[in-house]
Amino acid sequence: MTAHPVAIAVFLVLFVLVACLGFVATRWRKADLHSVQEWGLGGRSFGTLITWFLLGGDLYTAYTFIAVPAAMFAAGASGFFAVPYTILIYPILFLCFPRLWAVARARGYVTAADYVQGRFGSKLLALAIALTGIAAVIPYVALQLVGMQVIFAALGIPSSFAGIPNLPVIVAFAVLAAYTYSSGLRGTALTAVVKDLLIYVAVLAAIIVIPAALGGYGKVFASIDPKLLLLPRGTDSSLGGTFSYASLALGSALALFLYPHSLTGILSSSSGMAIRKNAILLPAYSLALALLALLGYMAVAAGVKAMPQYAAGFAAFGNNFAIPALFLHMFPDWFVGLAFAAIAIGALVPASIMAIASGNLFTRNIYKAFIAPDCTERQEGRAAKLASLAVKLGALVFVLFFQTSAAIQLQLLGGMWICQTLPSVLISLFTRWFHPTGLLLGWIVGMVSATAMAWQLGLKSSIYPLHLGGLTVPCYAALLALILNIAVAALATLVLNAVAPDTTDATVESDYLG
Amino acid sequence: MYEDKPPRRGFHPVYLLLLVPFVAMLWVPFYDRVEPSLWGIPFFYWWQMLWTLLGAVVTWPVYRFVARGR
To answer: Which of A313, A315, A342 is nearest to A326 (CA)?
Structure first.
C-alpha cells in the first residue's frame, strides 16, 4: 500500500500528543495511585462531563467505528442494529446502574464480582462473574489492536520494520501499557476527551463533505441493492430478519453494561445523578454512530471496492477496509491523518479501560479472594497493575499469532457469555430472592447453552434458528441462553429456598439509594 | 429496621416512559419500510436515528422526577 507522508505526520503528532497527556495525568487530581480505588477507579471522582467523555470513549470503540460501517457496507440494513442497541442501553443505564453505583460506593466495591460477593456471600458465584468478565473482555482488547492494524495499513505504514513483524502495533501497545500502568483510569479519562473531540470533528466533516461529493443522501441510498436496504420480513414459517434484528438489539443492550470496562466507567463517576444525566447525554454518541454507520453505504456509493489502489487493503482486511478507503478517497491527506488518529486513539481508550477493569477483577476476586487474602492495599494495587499488563499482553499475542477471525469469534462468544451474568448482577439489584447456588446453576446452563449454540452456528453467526413446531424463530443466541439461565436459576431457587435457604447479604436497602 | 426504609422509592408511573424506546425500537416491522422517506433517507434509517434523540427526550421527565425527590 502506498505511504501517505502528510497523513502519517499528522497522525503521529496527534498520537504522541495524546500519549503524553496519558502520562501527565498522573499529576491530575493527585492521589495515591498505588491503591486500586485510585488507580482503577479514578477515586470515584469524575463528574458528569468527564464521565460523558470516558463512557463515550469506552463504549463506542475504534473497532465499532470500523466494524459497524463495514457491516453496513457488506450486509446492508442488518448492520444498522448497532443503532437501536445503543439507544436501548440508556433506559437500562438510568434504571439499574445508579443503584449499583450507590451500593459499590457504600461498600467499597470495585467490580461487579465484588458486589455479587457482598450481596450473596458466595465466593464461587463471584469467581464465576469475574472469570466471565475477563474472558469476555480479552478478545475485545484484541479487536482494538486489530482496528489499529487496519489504520496503520491504510496510512501506508509498513507492517514490519528492520525485520521485526508487526512493529507498529507492538509500539502502540507499549505506549498503551506504559501509560495505563502509570496513571490508571485518570490517564484514560484525559485521553478520552481528546479522542472524542477528534471523532466528532471527523464525523461532522464526513457527513457533510461525503454526501455532497456523492450527490446527496438520495443518491447514496439509491446505490444500495434494494434487497439489502430493508430487513427480510417474516413469513408464515419464520419470524424473519425483523425478529433477529430486534433480538440482537435487545440482547446486546442487556449485555453492554455488564462488561467490566463499562462498569469501571460507571463506578468511576462521582454520583448517581451524574450517571442518570449521562443516560440523557450519551445518546449523542449513538447519533454519531448512526451517521458513521451510513458511511458504509457511502463507501458503496463511492465504489471504493473496485478501485485498484485499495485492492491490497481489501485483500488484507476484508470489508473492515471500507471506511479507511472511503476517507483516503474523499479527503486531503492532513484530514485523513486527523481522522485516523481519532480512530487509533479511539482504540487506546477502551483498550486501556478494559485492561484496567480486568486487572481489577483479577486482583479483587481471584488474587485477594483465593491467593492472598491478607494483602495490603499497596500489594493489591500492584497486582491490579500487573494483571492489566498481562491482559494486554494476552491480547497482543492474540493479534500477533492468531487470525483476526479468531478474535472476532471469541468476541462474539464473549458477548453471549457476559449476558449470562445478568441475573446475578442486574436482577439482584432489585431483589435478593434468588439463591446463590441457583444463580450459579443458571449461569452454568447459560454459558454452556450459549457456547453450544454458537458452536453449532460455526462461530460465524449469533442468530440461532429456534424451531417451535412449524415456526422458525431466528433469535440472538445470548437471549435464548439467558432465558434458560433465568428459568434454571428460578427453579433451583424455589427448591433450594425450601430445603436450605440462604439469606446471607452484606448489603442493606439503604446502600442502594445514591 | 430503620435502615431498610428508603426515603422515597417504589414505583411511579413516570418510570413507564423508559419503556417507550423499547416499543419504538423492538417493533421492527413497523419501521422496516422505505416510505415516508426524508431527504432521500428511507424511513427505516431516519426513524431509528430520530430515536437517538427521542430516547433522551423521554428520559428527561424521569430524571426531573428523581432529581425532585432528593
So the answer is: A313
